[in-house]
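step=encode ok
step=design start
structure_in=
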């Protein structure tokens, strides 16, 4: 009985750990996405303002305008490279799916509506591992998409 209870706790602990990890990573990616977008928007919005200012010498205006342009390009590039928005959405989806799975399991709803604890645990493990496997596949699909694109062929 003790070994069985330990295995149930292990399953629930793995589920809790995975849900927390995915939730934390989703929050991290959301914050990074907003940060890069805000920096890009502010720098881009300041370029026309800087270009009409007359308080700086022409060289200073050109340098500041170029710097702001470089910030815009860099921010957009970082966002595209790290795919913060896509990661945020996918990780949040996984976290919420795991949370829902735990609720179904806890309240014995749906496929978990059985008194056979061993069967419930088996179903939970299979479903959680399928969710995590699918999430990993999605991650690699998103991050390899750009590399798979072939340059246009000249005919």
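sequence_out=
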């Amino acid at each position: 009985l003790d070994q069985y209870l330990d295995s149930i706790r292990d399953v629930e602990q793995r589920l809790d750990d995975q849900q927390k990890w995915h939730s934390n990573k989703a929050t991290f990616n959301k914050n990074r996405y907003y940060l890069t977008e805000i920096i890009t928007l502010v720098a881009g919005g300041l370029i026309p303002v800087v270009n009409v200012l007359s308080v700086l010498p022409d060289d200073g205006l050109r340098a500041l305008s170029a710097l702001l342009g470089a910030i815009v390009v860099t921010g957009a590039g970082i966002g595209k490279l790290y795919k913060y928005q896509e990661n945020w959405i996918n990780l949040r989806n996984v976290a919420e799916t795991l949370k829902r799975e735990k609720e179904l399991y806890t309240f014995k709803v749906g496929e978990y509506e059985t008194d056979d604890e061993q069967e419930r645990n088996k179903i939970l493990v299979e479903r959680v591992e399928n969710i995590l496997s699918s999430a990993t596949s999605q991650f690699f699909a998103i991050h390899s998409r750009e590399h798979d694109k072939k340059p246009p062929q000249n005919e």
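step=design ok
step=annotate ok -> The CA atoms of residues 27 and 110 lie 30 Å apart.
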